[in-house]
Amino acid sequence: MDVERIIECIKQHDHEGLRAQLQQFNKEYAQCFFFDVEEWERKKFKKNKVRDPGSDSELDDESSEAREIFLRQSLASILIRFVRSEPHGRVTRVCLRTLRILSRDKKVLDSLLTDSALITLARLAGFSQTPVPGEDLSDQADPYGDVIEALSGLEWNEDANGEADRVCAEDQDANNFSTLRRRRSSIFRALTRGKRDTRASMVADEEEEEQGNGAERWEEEQNKEAVKILCNVVYNSAWAQERAAELSLLTGLTAKLARESQSASPPSGQYYELRLIFLLTALRPELRNQLKQEGGVAVLTTVLERSVSVRWKEQYEVAPPEPDTAPVPAEDSLRAQEALKILFNITHSAHTLEPDEEDAALYRRLAAVLRHCLLVCCEGEEDTEELKGHTVNLLSALPLSCLDVLLCVPLQPDSEQMDGVNMDCVHGLLMYLEKRLEKGQKVKARLTPVLNLLTESSRAHRGTRRYLRQQILPPLRDVSVRPEEGTTVKSRLVRLMTHLDTELKHCAADLLFVLCKENVRRFVKYTGYGNAAGLLATRGLLGGQRSRGTSSGTQYSSDSDSETEEYRQVKGRINPVTGRVEEEQPDPMEGMTEEEKEEEARRLVSLINKLSKDNMIQPMGLDPRGQLTPLAGLQDLSMEEEEEEEEDEADDLLNVE
Length: 657
Description:
- The chain is mainly alpha-helical.
- The protein folds into three domains: about 1-180 and about 220-235, no CATH class; about 250-405, no CATH class; about 415-420 and about 430-545, no CATH class.
- It has helices at about 5-10, 15-30, 35-50, 55-85, 90-100, 115-125, 145-150, 170, 185, 205-210, 215-235, 240-245, 250-260, 270-285, 285-295, 295-305, 330-345, 355-375, 380-395, 425-440, 445-460, 460-470, 490-495, 500-515, 520-525, 530-540, 565-570, 595-615, 630-655, and strands at about 155-160, 165, 310-315, 315-320, 415-420, 420, 575, 580, 620, 630.
- The strands form five sheets. A two-stranded antiparallel ribbon has the order 1-2. Strands 3-4 form a two-stranded antiparallel sheet. A two-stranded antiparallel sheet has the order 5-6.
- About 35% of the residues are buried.
């Protein structure tokens, strides 16, 4: 890398020479996401093999590594200054591509963390008109003099002990372009050794790109490259996140998205604009409220509508996709996913609030679009699943009162229905749940939102509950197997009820409990007492009593639970703990005399007492509220109740007298 030659080309306005130098660098490092690969491999090797700490090869490696880092730092500083002077479009794009590659390396971000650098990139990205702060480079005799001086001072000396020391201008001048290094410990988060994001659009070779491209296309590519750099910088630096918030970059991005929503077709770089908004709202919580207050919900809903080709019929009704409708293209699917993620960031707490009239209208319109997202297909199966997953996450964040539009859709000839209500959306959620259960990957992150959404929807809407119960908990016929055995949705959910993750197992149990109308007897019938014990203990229902008014306050209908003829025939032989018909076991006390039975009982009590004294087990019982309580506590409680009864009796006698 000849940094001095690059500076010379800039000074002499030799743009062709500059492009040639940078194109060579870009070609060499295009696939590089971790510059210090050799250093990483060397450290990995040192863990497995002890090397001589004073070996010449090791010192040479360290010297070479430090020199390469310094050269990359110098190159980043030069290019960010050069693009600030707004050179010709072709040269700007090549410089930005080099800066994008450099921005992947956390060790060379110093030059990209200043306000002037961030504003310069935002201007080149097309969403900021803020003047670049700092000195005017055009008035300087030699704006790159400090870099040249630093390069000339880059000397390597080896002392008598064989230790290499670097003496360079950056250590002598605290005011040069690398002084931001002092904040490194607090503002950088190291990138792991990565790989190319295959989901994002890949940039064509520069020679192919420049053939037949007009000025508008060149500007679009320039905007895209600048936004990519900002994405890398914001992701890797908390300092950049803070400065981006102070410089109101989010406001400019939102305004640009609003303008693009009025154009005939979105630019190819909109995906990266959405990615930058997602990073800012995910990493800076205060920006979520800012985006929401600046009309972000409406703007992003429009982006989502265009991405999935929404066709409106009524105010809150989207035309269903036709059978021969083309799948959503990959690029549009990626934009839709980013928009969904941002909308979740800014509305994730909305379900706990009662929206006003204006917000309710926004959320209902958004819910209608989300219904369409559940029903469409993308070009790739993975994209379809990702789109539905983000849709479910967002639906679970919206107020329940605004989700009525999911069902208020006229029936179609092939629609799923219950009591004359369109259940296509509920069926889509159920199919998504079934696929997630089958794959078994990232079960908590994937399953918790859809389980909560189905549970709350079932509580709020009788038709939804009846439809899901019909699909998940059909009338029992075969009780020869345990409830958790099998491949049905019910059996998979019952297995989750004993999962190690507490939140996940409670979500699965809550859904089945609500489908059973929060009736303990019915819940135990379908899941077995052993599987149901966790939820019943949490709700204080281990005694088998029905919850008073239900835990959620939901009033269920009083229709009886119909039993199949097959279930009635074996009902008396079903083990309530396992939930299935067990084989008859021989009586262990058969043939024993009464004295032998009493002796066995005493021995059992003795063993239990010993385990209890050694704290191996703790005997429990149920208190009046149905909660598990140590037996010692129950004894104290019963004594207190007896004392209270005696006091009440004494008061009654005094009152009589």
